[in-house]
Write a structure and sequence with these properties.
The protein is α+β, with helices and mostly antiparallel strands and 65 residues long. 35% of the residues lie in helices and 26% in strands. It has 2 helices and 3 strands, in the order ββαβα. It has helices at residues 26-37, 51-61, and strands at 4-8, 11-17, 41-45. It has a 3-stranded mixed beta sheet, sandwiched between helices. Strand 1 (4-8) and strand 2 form a beta hairpin. It is flat and about 30 Å long. It starts with a strand and ends with a helix.
Length: 65
């Protein structure tokens, strides 16, 4: 299960947080793929791409548009 999970206005999302060059495990990749396959949103973030969280939240705040 991703580190952060939630549902906002009917949109399920998961955020896996990694430090530095940390890599996702096979199980984490499977969970992320399952979330996406079911219509949810899932991202992996670290210090280099933290702006993806802002993008995800903006999408959710716009009602998935």
């Amino acid at each position: 299960v991703p580190d952060i999970v939630g549902c906002y206005h009917g949109h399920f999302f998961g955020i896996e947080c990694k430090a530095g060059k940390g890599k996702t495990t096979a199980l984490q990749e499977k969970n992320i793929a399952q979330i996406i396959a079911q219509g949810g949103l899932a991202i992996v973030v670290n210090e280099d791409n933290i702006e993806e969280v802002r993008t995800l939240l903006g999408y959710l705040l716009r009602g998935g548009k």
